[in-house]
From TrEMBL:
Keywords: Amino-acid biosynthesis, Cytoplasm, Diaminopimelate biosynthesis, Lysine biosynthesis, NAD, NADP, Oxidoreductase. It comes from the Bacteria. It catalyses: (S)-2,3,4,5-tetrahydrodipicolinate + NAD(+) + H2O = (2S,4S)-4-hydroxy-2,3,4,5-tetrahydrodipicolinate + NADH + H(+); (S)-2,3,4,5-tetrahydrodipicolinate + NADP(+) + H2O = (2S,4S)-4-hydroxy-2,3,4,5-tetrahydrodipicolinate + NADPH + H(+). This is 4-hydroxy-tetrahydrodipicolinate reductase. It comes from Salegentibacter maritimus. The gene is dapB.
Length: 238
């Protein structure tokens, strides 16, 4: 498969290593404005975007216009997500966004949903999310923490929003910490006066995120439509 890497930083480089090991070819490594490239004239099967929040929407929609399927892991651009979906459908292209491509985090999401269902109505327990990432991260809270909050909100009758740091009674507080070299740690806790129930996912490296993105790229090639990691992992997440 011929892959365009939109963003060639920490994730782009890790994806390259895994993709090449799986027999794919990297035909573009983008580090600046996508307008400088004539995608129509290039032979690209799938684009994988791990760039920066400011660039993601333009990168993604430029690919849709050239009928190139996109796997996007960039976080911090979701105010434009619905517009991107509309454009994908209009151009009859293909798209997967995931706040986190690792299989482990997608299993953790399932656990989070189940725990949220159990804890709904347990008014003695206060829910909180904490995320820890490296100091170069541009956005806070992390996309994964936002996904965790949305999954809890879908199950919890008392919560209808999330807030960075200090939250109102109907909101879930998300604490974001930045510590050098941490690839990504997420904790969901329910604390009462008596005890605390906690679930945690700790990434030991970027390998899981990158492998998941390459597997998603292999999966989406030749498809049309808007998909999620749940579709890609449907066999594992039954
Ligand atoms: N969904 C997931 O599983 C994961 C998502 N991420 C997200 O992926 C993104 C990238 O993360 P890292 O690689 O750690 O960041 P990074 O800062 O190491 O790399 C970003 C790269 O984007 C490049 N860039 C700047 N402007 C660009 C443009 N207009 N078009 C294309 N590229 C451009 C920069 O030169 C840089 O090389 C972040 O938003 C991060 O939150 C990171 C890890 C996992
Ligand atoms: O910026 C990162 O590094 C990561 N970003 C993603 C997020 O915002 O959730 C996923 C992962 O935790 C690493």
């Amino acid at each position: 498969m011929k892959i365009a890497l939109l963003g060639y930083g920490k994730m782009g480089k890790t994806i390259e290593e895994i993709a090449v090991n799986r027999g794919h070819e990297i035909v573009l490594k983008l580090e600046d404005d996508i307008d400088n490239f004539e995608l129509d004239k290039m032979d690209i099967d799938v684009a994988i975007d791990f760039s920066i929040p400011k660039a993601a929407f333009k990168n993604i929609t430029t690919c849709f216009k050239s009928d190139i399927p996109v796997v996007c892991g960039t976080t911090g651009w979701l105010d434009d997500y619905e517009k991107a979906i509309e454009l994908c459908k209009k151009e009859n292209s293909a798209f997967i966004y995931a706040s986190n491509f690792s299989v482990g985090v997608n299993l953790f999401f399932e656990l989070n949903r189940k725990l949220a269902k159990i804890m709904n109505g347990m008014s003695d327990y206060a829910v909180e999310i904490e995320e820890i990432h490296h100091t170069e991260k541009q956005d806070a809270p992390s996309g994964t923490a936002i996904s965790l909050a949305q999954q809890i909100i879908a199950e919890n009758d008392q919560k209808n929003n999330w807030q960075l740091d200090h939250a109102e009674a109907d909101e879930i507080p998300i604490k974001a910490k930045r510590i050098e070299n941490v690839p990504g740690t997420h904790t969901v806790s329910y604390a009462s006066e008596i005890d605390t129930i906690e679930i945690m996912h700790t990434a030991k490296s970027r390998q899981g995120f990158a492998l998941g993105a390459v597997v998603a790229a292999e999966w989406i090639k030749g498809k049309k439509g808007v998909f999620s990691m749940k579709d890609v992992l449907s066999d594992q997440l039954k």
